[in-house]
Amino acid sequence: MSETTTPNAAEEALASVDAPKDPTRFLEDVFGDGGVFANTFPGYRKRAGQFSMTTAVYAAINADQPVIIEAATGVGKSFAYLIPAIRAVTDDAMKIKLAERRTPTKEDAPVYHFSKQTHDESPRVLVVTAGLNLQDQLVNKDLPFLRKILPWPFRHQAAKGRSNYACLHRYHTTNIFEIKPEDDDEWAGIDRWMKKTQTGDLAELPFEVRPSLRPRISVSADECHGSDCGHFRNCHAVKARDRAGTSEVVVANFHLLLSHLRVSKAGEGTSILPRYDILILDECHELPNIARSFLGFHIHPGLFKELLKLLPAKNPLRHEVEAEIDAFFGTVGAYKRSGNYKARLKDPGLLPHEPICAALVKFAERLQDNAKKLDKKSDDEEVQEDDKREQNELRKAAGRIKEYASNIEQACLLDEPDRTVYFINEERFGTHDRYSLCGEPIDPAPLLRAMIWKAQEPKTPEEKKLHLPIAIGTSATLSTEDDGTEKAIGFMSSRIGADDAKRLVVRTPFNISKQVLTVYPDESPDPKSPDYAKYLAPLIVRAIRMARGRTLGLFTSKKALETVTALVRQSIGGEYPILKQGEAPRVKLVEKFRKDIPSCLFGVKSFWAGVDVPGEALSLVFIDKIPFDPPDDPVLDALSSKDKETFKRYSIPRAAIDLRQAFGRLIRSETDRGVVVLFDRRFMSTGWGKMLVKAMPSTAVTSRLDDIGKFFATTATT
Q: For the residues 194-219, what does the mean pLDDT come to?
């Protein structure tokens, strides 16, 4: 349609398209005998689970009814949601339906959420993932493949945050004489790349940009000058956003989605992402934790380092603010180290916030005053443009400083303690400890429900007026039990705010009971022992030898990872290469593990998911301990103070999902065989441990560690 097409003309044009008699005919055209897949894959057989999920996704889109789907390993869930979503945004009949949903017919009719754009824009699906691994797979592998084989033309584009792109303003204003000698070679590489890159995507670089150079080549959304920038027309981030705006399929991550939802309003405000009609949340079991961190705040001294440079070095106010920051966070650190701090802040007024908040407000007001002084300071247009950019920077900085002051006050006064948990985080930063004052929602589900999921029966006027895009959540691991029922994904559905969504569990096509042996070693040490990792290492060595390497070791703490890795390397490092998280980029570690068959890979929580190594390279997975949150976890402590059943209602289901996620690393194809070893003796010695055993996939089970050797000896002869 032309840009001058009116809404009424657009509706008439859409209405003139004849809808097909059978809108689901495409399912057989793709999955059936003689269909697209049959003509693409030799020996193709329709996967019942994949077909079931595809049907459910299309039905959800058609009925405007959100759905949560657990699609176990082997189902092929990416194609199962991409194909019906692509069909929906390219099929004329479905485009009519999607257009009608976003178009008001009278003053009090539902309006489309998060959009200022006209309703004659083509429909769009937004696919959101938790991690970059899946995002890259979708953008660089799955979607290009579907574009080749599907008969429905479509475009796709990755959407990334502004800091993922090279900033032309920062690049051109960098003084090369300020580059440190140790950074010269890397800057030269960046310089060569900048002169030829078409996208400005920093992921194109063959190296990770050093922290010392990052501020010279990229900016955050707060630091960006936006349309006031002299490089706005050629801005790589803006061009990427424009490409996303002309694509039927856009792929982003949860952080970008949450940024978009936070700054957007119903029908007004700024949009980070283009308007979308269908929202697919893959890896949605990760959404609660990401949302809790994102929707909260983490204030530390490092946030003020660049902001303070907006005042001259010898300015008295700058020294005053620096002194108050040092004093306040010194007090925060001292309280964290004291015996009085237990998991979280529990009493208001313990931290003296008034001096630092007053200094920060004064700082913000000074920046606002400095911005006002730049009004029409010069008649020179070029100078005016520079002044406008500086004004914009000063005003943004002032807003951030006031927000930080407000956050500090909220934490110190324990604002809304029933909804928000406040705590002090300690982390090693360089050669010293850094303390952060933090606040996070105890339960992000209500916020997620309001921003993402439809209410089945809208109650408030806002719910009745607001039209949310249809949302579909999926993951390989949502169940807290292994019974295949919809009830088993109830816990996770509630945690992501999707209580009213329909539920579907699609079981794995693999014969897990015959492909896997699960070992609960009766000789496992006491997990409460301070030397647990030391006693565990010899058992891990035995397991690795019986598996002939080929082992993924998953740990619940960095300390255990370090201790066990050192002991295992000392014992069998000459026989089997032991790869450890942190010693190389994740992608390189996994690739080396995949290619070097006898090697072993050890990691902590981030390696419990996203490690996809089919075949013999991964034949044994061990878990050092049940993955409970530590007792001093602030959210757990806040929940436990209100509910004595928190361990049963919260900790056990969370641990079950994490364990099932780790289990899923082992079997990636119908020919894979392997062993899962769960070393924690509490699995068999406690009632709640047996609940977790019940949640694990049904397999052959033993308590004898030496049965690992027998299992591999048997599979080698079959």
A: 87
